[in-house]
Amino acid sequence: MTTSAPVSRPVSERERLEEALRRCAGGDPAGLRTIYDAEAPRMLGVATRLLRRRSLAEEAVHDTFLQVWQHASSFDATRGNADTWLYAVLRNRALNILRGEARTELTEDFEPMGLASEDESPEAIVLRLSTTSALKRCLERLKPIQRHAVVLAYVHGLSHGELAGRLDVPLGTMKSWMRRSLAALRECMP
C-alpha cells in the first residue's frame, strides 16, 4: 500500500495577502513584492479616482507601500481583512495628499506673500556662508534642486506643499527630497 502525499488546498487571495503582510512585518522584502504584484495596479486605479491626477496617484501608491513595509506589524487579521487594511492605508495617504495639495493651490502665487522677491536667492545664501563652514560643505554635497528646497524651507519657512508648488514638483517628491536631504545633512555634519 502506498501513502499518498497530502492534498494541498488552494490558498485564497485573502490568505496570500495576510501571509505577505506577516512576511513584511518580519522584514522579508518578498512579502512586499507579493503585495505589490497583486495590488499595485488596482491601488493605482483607486488612487487615480480619488486624486484625479496620475502623478499624485503614483505618489500615493508609492507612499502606501512605504507605510505597508514600515507598519505591516500593525495589521491584525482578527480585526479585518488584509485588503481592507491596505486600502485604508491608501485612502489615508490620498487624503493627506489632497490636504497638502489644497494648501499648495492656495499659495500658487508667491509674489503677494513676498517670498519670490526675497533679496537673496537660496544659492546666494549658501555662498555667503563661511568657506570653512561645515553646513556650507554639507549643503554643497546636495543636488542643486534639493539644496534650493532645503534653504527655502529653512530660510523662508516654506512648507512641503509650498515648496512643491514653487518648484513645480509633486508633493511626495518634495517630501522625499527633504527627507533624503536632511538625512544626508545629518550624516555629513560633525
Describe this structure in words.
Belongs to the sigma-70 factor family. ECF subfamily. This protein is 70% helix and 0% strand. The protein has 190 residues and is an all-alpha fold. It has two domains: 13-106, Orthogonal Bundle (Rna Polymerase Sigma Factor, Chain: A), CATH 1.10.1740; 111-188, Orthogonal Bundle (Arc Repressor Mutant, subunit A). Residues 1-9 and 102-118 have low confidence and may be disordered. The longest helix has 25 residues, at 82-106. α1 (13-25) crosses α2.
Task: Count the E strands.
Answer: 0
CATH superfamily of the largest domain: RNA polymerase sigma factor, region 2, helix turn helix motif
Question: Termini separation (Å)?
Answer: 74 Å
Choose one word for the global shape.
Answer: elongated
| Proportion of helical residues | over 70%
Helical element count?
A: 9
Features:
190 residues, mainly alpha, Rna Polymerase Sigma Factor, Chain: A, Arc Repressor Mutant, subunit A, 2 domains, 9 helices, elongated, disordered N terminus
Reconstruct the topology from this structure.
Layout: H1 13-25, H2 29-51, H3 54-71, H4 82-106, H5 122-128, H6 134-141, H7 144-156, H8 160-167, H9 171-188
